[in-house]
Amino acid sequence: MRWTRKDLLGLRDLSADEIRLILQTAKSFQEVSLRSVKKVPALRGKTVANLFFEPSTRTRISFELAEKRLSADTFHVAASTSSFVKGETLKDAAKNIEALKVDVMVMRHSSSGAPHRIAQYMKASVINAGDGINEHPSQALIDMFTVLEKKKKIENLKISFIGDILHSRVARSNMWGLTKLGAQVTVCGPQTLLPRGVEKLGVRATTSLLEAVQGADVVNLLRIQTERQDQSFFPSIREYATAYQINSEILKHAKEDVLIMHPGPVNRGIEITSDVVDGPYSVILDQVTHGLAVRMAILYLVCGASSDGSSEEDGL
Q1: Where are the alpha helices (DSSP H) in 99-136?
Q2: Could you give the CA distance from residue 39 to residue 56 in angstroms, rounded to a whole number?
Q3: Contact (Cβ atoms closer than 8 angstroms) between residue 29 and residue 316
Q4: Which residue ranges form the domains of the chain, and what is each CATH number?
Q5: C-alpha–C-alpha distance, residues 77 and 64, integer Å
Q6: Residue 39, SS3 per DSSP
Q7: Is residue 111 exposed (0-12), middle (13-18) or buried (19+ Cβ within 10 Å)?
Q8: Which of 135, 188, 222, 305 lies 20 to 30 A from 243 at CA?
Q9: What is the DSSP letter of 63?
Q10: Closest by alpha carbon to 218, among 158, 270, 163?
Q11: HEC sequence for 184-229
């Protein structure tokens, strides 16, 4: 199939085939990073604006590097150095940037739905790099790509997410994507950090860490997102770690070839111990590496690089 969407705002509205197309395209871009010259002309002449109104390290650097590897012209806008501080609205800021004939806007914002709102007014494509507690589609696609690389399939795998499910946009995007590809998804955390009615998304919810880890093929850890919490959801970090920390002992109940994943940043000693982060089951750094190929694929598809008469072979 061909990609027909102007934007990538989330995985909720994507079909299983559209998700597979992104992952397949990422596979074709994977070898670019292994070349002596790590660059292809796929987006030459395209301009990408990175609008990050919320702190980011991995996502921002990954998108910027992906854009450069595709030969796009790029620039970065941060909230602290933009007209935002002078009272300009998000819509006006985006329209002014689009007036510079920008082709794609990669946006991260602390408000859920901000990229969706901007996409309504833009002719330029909009890629959601994380909005509030709603979705983080590129990270979920990276997680799925990593699972495929290691397990060669997603269907029927038992994949568990442990931690702050309530405030995690990564968990939400993963739930939408993984269930569409046939995975058996479990979410686990304190009752106060499990979204009400989350089972309606086709996942299993439990407050028991042992139950979530038992027989799991993949365990994806989520940090406690204190920056998005306006109240206390558990007595203390120490008590949370006692009940929900992943360590070598609890991993004995998972599959022998279990994958340990984390979207970052990792809080060692809280949701996960250092020996597990650095251990043989961890694919956390693989996720970072795969981020380049996945984000190259997303940029390539939304730019419509193959719809202007050029072939994918030319682009790669």
Answers
A1: 114-121
A2: 24
A3: yes
A4: 16-135+291-315 (3.40.50.1370), 137-287 (3.40.50.1370)
A5: 12
A6: coil
A7: middle
A8: 135
A9: H
A10: 158
A11: EEEEECCHHHCCCCHHHHCCEEECCHHHHHCCCCEEEECCCCHHHC
Cβ contact 297:26 at 8 Å: yes
Residue 95 phi/psi, 5-degree rounding, is -65, -40
**pTM over the 0.85 mark:** yes
Nearest to 290 by CA among 27, 5, 93, 13: 27
Q: Measuring CA to CA, which residue among 76, 104, 107, 74 is closest to residue 90?
A: 107
Structure token digits, residue 275: 């020996």
pLDDT value for 62: 97
Rounded Cα gap, residues 309 and 23, in angstroms: 23
Residue 78: the pLDDT is: 80
* pLDDT given for residue 73 in this prediction: 97
Quick one: pLDDT at residue 312? 44
pLDDT in tens, 4-31: 999 999 999 999 999 999 999 999 999 9
CB neighbours of 72 closer than 8 A, spacing ≥ 6?
Answer: 43, 44, 46, 47, 48, 103, 104, 299
**Given this model, what pLDDT does residue 306 score?**
39
Which residues in the chain show pLDDT less than 70? 80-86, 226-232, 235, 305-316
Angle CA 164–169–171, to nearest 5: 60
